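Hello forum,

I keep getting stuck at the same step: I have a sequence, I want structure tokens, and every attempt I make locally crashes halfway through. Rather than fight my setup again tonight, could one of you with a working pipeline run this one for me? It's a single chain of 161 residues.
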Amino acid sequence: MAMSESILTQSEIAEHLDLSERSVREFLDASGIDHKRAKLSDIRIAYIRRLREQAAGRATNGDLALATERAGLARAQRVRIEMENAREQHLLVRVEEIEPRMKAAAVYARVRWLEAVPRLARELPDDPIRREEVLQVEFEAFLHRLADWAHAGHGEDGIDD
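Reply #2:
Ran it on my machine without issues. Output:
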């Protein structure tokens, strides 16, 4: 069927592109084409370009483009894997695990400190410099146990919850 390049109705454009009139109306609106001023060949070329963009995953039509969605999915998978790796390496702890672990570390450090008091009372040397060194070692060990909350509560030289 030969159509002239005169003013076309949306119905004629729909027939030419094998679309519904509604689809033509939506396409023309989205493309900003005035069908009363545009040539049929220009409308057809614009429609073909839109189909190519959609096939390439670049057209959005109100939704995310296919390429954008794939990139988002890949990014989400990468973040999930990075978080799992960080958890396995004990670089990341779930929020709900923090309080029990900190409490276990504090309890463990306190118990060990209280056990050290009678021993220190018996073992502290008379020499002030040596006594200071022994106390320094004990204080550092206490602070280390207190700071090692990430491993507390797992039986790794700590008190189980």
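Confidence is low (pLDDT under 50) at residues 156-161. If your local run keeps crashing, start a new thread with the error log.
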